[in-house]
Amino acid sequence: MIKNLQTLFFGIILFFVSLPIEATHIRAGEITVQRVNCQSKTFIIYITGYVDLSGGQVTFGGGELDFGDGSEPIEHIRTDSRVEIILDEVDIGNDIKITRFKVEHTYSGNGIYFIGYQEPNRNAGIVNMDNSVETPFYIETMVRIDGTLGCNMFLPEMLVPPIDFGCTGVAFYHNPGAFDRDGDSLAFEFVTPRKAKNTPVDNYRVMNDPEFGGFEEGTTNVPAGLTINPLTGDLVWNSPGIQGEYNVAFIVKEYRRLQGEYFLIGSVVRDMQIIVDNCDNNRPRLDLPDDICVEAGDNVNFDVFATDEDGDDVKIEVFSVVLYFPDSPATFSPDPAVFQPQPGTLNFDWNTTCDQVREQPYLVTFKVTDQPDQGVPLVEFGTVNIIVVAPAPQNLQSTVNANRTIDLTW
C-alpha cells in the first residue's frame, strides 16, 4: 500500500559514523523492526543513531545488540559480518550526522522480545543526569510474536530526525513523525532514559525540574511545563530555563484492536538530547486547520500558514505516510520545502481512495523552521488528524421479513 518507504527511510531516517578523536558524542537513536513475511519469524532490525560533531568526530556502531531471546548478542555491530551498513556519515544539518545498520534475526517461537542496543559514552555534560560521558547509551524496542493477535509486519517508524535546538525562555517543540504501516494505534509517553536493560541513568531529572529554572513562555511566574501528546506525539517543553544539553526519552507504543479490546503488540524508544542556548530569537508559529474527517473519494485540500515575530524567513515541512502511497498519494507545494518570506504558506492536497479507509486517523505532521540572521534556528510542530471513512451506501432499500429480520440492499 505504501510506495518506496524503504527509500524514504534511507533519505529521512538516516544514520551516522566516523573516526574517534575525543569522547563519543551520541545525540539520539532508535531501533525499528519489520517482519520479512507472516509465514516466518525472521525480522529485519534497523539501528539508527545520530552523532553530534561539534566536539570532534566519532565512530558510532561500537556497541552491543541483544536480540532479547537468549541468543548470542552481536558485540560490535560495525565490524560484524552479519550487519549491513545502510547509511554512513550522512550530514542532515545542524552539525549532526546519521548512520543506519541492518541485520536479520530469526526467533524460534512466539513470545515477547526486547531488542536492546548499548554503546558506551553519551555526550558529555548533560545537565539532567549524572556523569553522562561515562553513561552508556541504551535504546530498546519490543517485538511481540503472537498468532492470536494477527501478523504484525511493521513496528512504529519515525520520519522526523531529532536535530533541532532550543533557546532559553522559548518553548521547544519536537515530533518524531511516527506512523505504523499496518494501521495499528500508536500511543506516546515519556520514559526515563536508560544505560542498560531495566537500568535507568543515574540521578535523572525531568527537563522542567525546578532545579533548571524556566517559566512558561511569556511569563515570569508560571513554572515550565513538559508534555507529550499521547495521540499525536507532539512534545512541548515550555520553556527551558538555563543553557545546556538535556536528555529526554519517549516510547511509541503500538496497539492492535481485536473484538473491542486493545493489545500491546510492539514499542519503540527514542532517546535524544536537546541543546539549549541563550539566544535572541522568537520561535515561528504555525496556523493549522482543525482535524478532518473525509469520505473516501473526496479531496482534502488546505493551506498551512507560518509567521515569525522577528520577520525571519520560514520553511514549512510536512511528514506523513500519506505522502508515500503508491496510488493517489498526498502532495504539497512548494516541494521541496524552501525558506520563504513570512507569512509562509504550504498547500496540502490529497485525493483519497477507498483503499485508504481505516479506523485510525492518518497523522500529518507539520514543522516550521525560522532563519535568523544569527543564532540558532527555532521550530514549531503541529499535527492534523485526517480520518478517511467509507462512502455512504447509495440507493439504500430495506425489506422487513416475516421472521422480524430486515434485509438491506444497495
Which terms would index this structure?
mainly beta, Immunoglobulin-like, 2 domains, eleven-stranded mixed beta sheet, four-stranded antiparallel beta sheet, 45% strand
Protein architecture, described:
The protein is mostly beta strands and 410 residues long. The chain contains one helix and 28 strands. The chain folds into two domains: 274 residues, no CATH class; 112 residues, Immunoglobulins (Immunoglobulin-like, Sandwich). The protein is 2% helix and 45% strand. It is globular, with a radius of gyration of 23 Å. It starts with a helix and ends with a strand.
Structural class: mainly beta
Radius of gyration: 23 Å
- Average pLDDT rating: 92
The tally of domains stands at: 2
Q: Between the first and last Cα atoms, what is the distance in angstroms?
A: 28 Å
Question: What low-confidence regions span 5 or more consecutive residues with pLDDT below 50?
Answer: 5-24
Topology at a glance:
Blueprint: H1 5-11, E1 26-35, E2 42-52, E3 64-66, E4 84-91, E5 96-106, E6 111-119, E7 137-145, E8 157-158, E9 166-167, E10 172-174, E11 178-179, E12 185-191, E13 194-196, E14 199-200, E15 225-228, E16 235-238, E17 244-258, E18 261-277, E19 285-287, E20 292-295, E21 299-307, E22 313-319, E23 331-333, E24 344-351, E25 362-371, E26 379-389, E27 397-400, E28 406-409
Parallel strand pairs: 9-18, 20-26
Antiparallel strand pairs: 1-2, 1-18, 2-5, 3-6, 4-5, 6-7, 7-18, 8-11, 10-16, 12-17, 13-14, 15-16, 17-18, 19-21, 21-24, 22-25, 23-24, 25-26, 27-28
